[in-house]
Amino acid sequence: MTALQEKPKAVAPSGPPPRRRGKRATALAGTDKLVLGLMLGIPTIVHVLFVWIPTLGSIGLSFSRWNGIGGFEDIEWIGVDNYVEIFTEYPRFWPAVQHNLIWLAFLLIVPTCAGLLLAVLLDRELKFSRIYQSALYMPMVLSLALIGFIWQLIYTPDGGLLNSLLGLSDKPVDWIGDSDINLYAVLVAAAWRHTGYIMLLYLAGLKSVDPALKEAAALDGASSVQTFFRVTFPVMKPVNIVVAVVTVIEALRAFDIVYVINKGRNGLELLSVLVTDNIIGEASRIGRGSAVAVILLTISLGVIIPYLYQTFSKENRS
Amino acid sequence: MTAMLQRPSAPVPAQKRPVTPARIALHVFLILTCLMTLAPLLWAVYASLRTYDDTSVNGYFSVAKSLTFENFAKAWEIGDLPHFYWNTFLITIPALIITLLLSSMVAFGVSRFSFKFNLILLMIFTAGNLLPQQVVVTPLWRLYRMIEVPEWISASGSLIDSQLGVILIHIAFQSGFCTFVLSNYMKTIPYELTEAARVDGASVFRQYWQLTLPLCRPVLAALATLEFTWIYNDFLWALVLIQDGDKMPVTSALQNLKGTFFTDNNLIAAGSLLVALPTLVVFFVLQRQFVGGLTLGSTKG
Q: Does A139 touch chain B (CB under 8 A)?
């Protein structure tokens, strides 16, 4: 991430500020101490109260049986029963896991390759480069809920664009209704939006690669393809990590688009849908929903922790 | 958008560089890719401009008999869009301003003073921004039902079903990303600047408000652009935390529109485009800020 950052132009490049160990809060006057305390304290309390306390709450509630409506005295503690039930009996769980995995694999392959390719193509002196970039970034500003609506016009069996283009108007394919294919239909729409983002990340990454490296490789007789895979791509490791983190999180968060299309049923089950169904859907089993949330949390920590490590370990050293 | 598309139909040769076949192939490939990227939206525009009678007889994949803005007017009215735009405005603007204010305070604190807990604090904010919302949502929903607020803020008497509740979670959640980006930026501002002010007797608040914030104007603009689209586009928080369909922001209210418009796809297309319009305008007007913001810090789903 820090590697992606462009140095602000207005500021003289003087590197990171030197750490002054002596300048602690003790050197501050009383009012300043109070003001600083509030400036750091209020935002932290808001963030922790509404993000981290509920996260801990999910962990706690995952060991309980509760309908969520009554008071806390109605909570029944049942140990790991929710997890056992989810893994062995809950019929929607394994399909959801499978769909999330397909979602992740698809996003890791299609938009990443397409985004990288487009970034490489656009990373040169090129006429109309800005126009191309605008067009390719455009889907990024649309919400996935909206994308669900727009793409239904393409997939709809009666007069949809896709069936007409493929000449299937006579016996139309129900791209959204058929549970064997609807996941992929939705994934194409999700990838449509994700590609621009990946391209943006790689374009910034490519710009930050020292041109001298490429020149040196060219002098040594490397072809441009060799230079890319042996020099440029490995140097972009920080960007690759960001791309991986962004994609995994995106795959775990996926919700809006399937909810808009069919409320996450009939082939479009996702872990996120199983969680929200307990609050807005017909099932009202807070304990089971929380257990699914904890599973989501565990997977996401698998990328969050390495990411934090790589972002902040550098900082500690400097 | 369409105006942009028409121009690059035949690549004009660069003045200095000779036109090689490879260059032409590159342009052709890029033009086709861009057209494919824009196609879903253009298709929606096309459908929205046609009448129900036209498409029900001839199908969507046909040359339009006539083009009309009628669907937009109808969607605007039936969908009660002004009302839902207003709801979105009531949520987005306060959430945006307070998020930037709070994040810049934390970023100022951790980048200008070397407290022992700086790193931990930054990690809490950065990790919080990466959590899937579903990890938070169930206990949050319950927490909101417990927190009592006066009737004039929320008719339900609690944070649930109130715009304030949605604003609060946006602030809490988005401040993770903004704090991370702003603290990275503030670290590049020379330390001597605030130190000199301190020696001159400027209070901590003045160092923040009059010295640091003005220097952060470009990054604040970038973050404001990004946060506007993200908060505007929010679907989940409002869907879960607001049950009264009348209070929904426009993105979540799309779900209601679907019912209102039954199967008139032309009307749905028009409604969708109207909902997309503010973010598209922001994107085309403030594209530099948008892209710059995403490049500065890049962790957001």
A: yes
DSSP run (H or E) holding A175: none
pLDDT tier at B296 (50, 70, 90 boundaries)? confident
Q: Is A132 on the interface with B (CB under 8 A)?
A: yes
Domains of chain B (ranges; CATH) run 1-39 (no CATH), 75-296 (1.10.3720.10)
- Compute the nearest-CA separation of A249 from chain B (Å): 6
Q: pLDDT of A133-164, one tens digit each?
A: 999 999 999 999 999 989 988 998 877 888 88
The span from the CA of B281 to the CA of A185, in Å, is 28
CB B77, CB B62: distance < 8 Å: no
Report which residue type is found at B201: G
CB-based contact A143 B279, cutoff 8 Å: yes
ipTM: 0.86
Handedness of CA B159, B160, B164, B165 (dihedral sign): positive
| 144-203 of A, contacting B, C-beta below 8 A | 144-146, 149-154, 156, 158-161, 164-165, 169, 189, 192, 195-197, 200-201
Residues 68-87 of A with CB under 8 A from B: 68
- How many residue pairs from chains A and B have C-beta atoms closer than 8 A? 363
> For chain A, what are the domain ranges?
27-91+285-318, 98-250
The CB density around residue B70, as the number of other CB atoms within 10 Å, is: 17
CATH class of the domain at A98-250: mainly alpha
Question: Considering the entire predicted model, what is its pTM?
Answer: 0.87
Convert the pLDDT of each residue in B80-120 to its tens digit.
Answer: 889 999 999 999 999 999 999 999 999 999 998 888 888 99
